[in-house]
Specification:
Distance between the termini: 36 Å
Number of helices: 8
Strand order of the largest sheet: 1-7-6-5
Mean pLDDT: 97
Radius of gyration: 17 Å
Strand content: 15-25%
Number of strands: 10
């Protein structure tokens, strides 16, 4: 699949609001015993229930490491697609591609991922499998993509209304473990080019002591353009 050297804004692509129609849902199967209690078994039961509920309405793909394929395939209904995609942890919203569209084609924006802060205050090491996951999803779905090798972002740190406005938090995007080589204005410029937004609203912080450094998706969501 093609990797573009242009930007979504240049190509007329935008990030839609999450309330808009979409092609399906991705989930990563949990298994880390340092993150999930009791060998991740309770989490796997809940993830299976969530995947099954969503699959009643749209296509669901569950990404699993090789050693969990048989277990996940056994626990999930047949109409849920299970695919082997190497991963470090279970948060595809953050490490997966950000989808942009021109109304006809969907492309993926592949940001760098460093486990919510890298060596400064990240949650685990290594994170290279998660950083590679967005490209693999794009290949699987046959989405062309944009890759940013020098900009770190997680999907849960941004929300857009699909009509030119984006909301994020200073606590997250200005944190030392993300893009400390850039100032606020430079970060805004990247977001405007790769998500095709015109206005960025900066909240000061997210939930107190949140391990993601204040992801906006914990406190805010758009339900339609201009309305949250």
């Amino acid at each position: 699949m093609k990797t573009y050297t242009t930007t979504p804004k240049e190509d007329g692509f935008r990030m839609p609001g999450e309330f808009e129609n979409h092609l399906g849902t991705y989930i990563i199967w949990p298994e880390r015993t340092d993150n999930w209690r009791l060998g991740a078994k309770p989490a796997q039961e809940v993830f299976a229930q969530v995947a099954s509920a969503i699959a009643e309405h749209e296509a669901v793909t569950v990404a699993v490491n090789e050693g969990q394929y048989a277990n996940a395939r056994h626990m999930l209904p047949d109409h849920v697609r299970v695919v082997e995609i190497s991963n470090d942890d279970a948060w595809v919203r953050d490490c997966g591609p950000t989808c942009v569209t021109d109304g006809k084609e969907v492309r993926g924006v592949d940001w760098r991922f460093n486990a919510w802060g890298g060596l400064v205050d990240g949650l685990y090491f290594p994170w290279d499998k998660d950083d590679a996951l967005a490209q693999k999803v794009c290949e699987l779905e046959r989405f062309n993509r944009y890759r940013l090798d020098h900009f770190i972002l997680e999907g849960g740190s941004i929300h857009t209304d699909g009509d030119g406005t984006l909301v994020t938090t200073e606590e997250c995007l200005l944190s030392e473990g993300r893009n400390s080589h850039l100032n606020k204005e430079q970060i805004e410029a990247v977001l405007k080019e790769y998500l095709n937004v015109e206005k960025i609203i900066w909240l000061k912080r997210g939930i107190y002591l949140d391990e993601t450094n204040g992801h906006v998706d914990n406190i805010f969501a758009f339900v339609k353009p201009g309305e949250c």
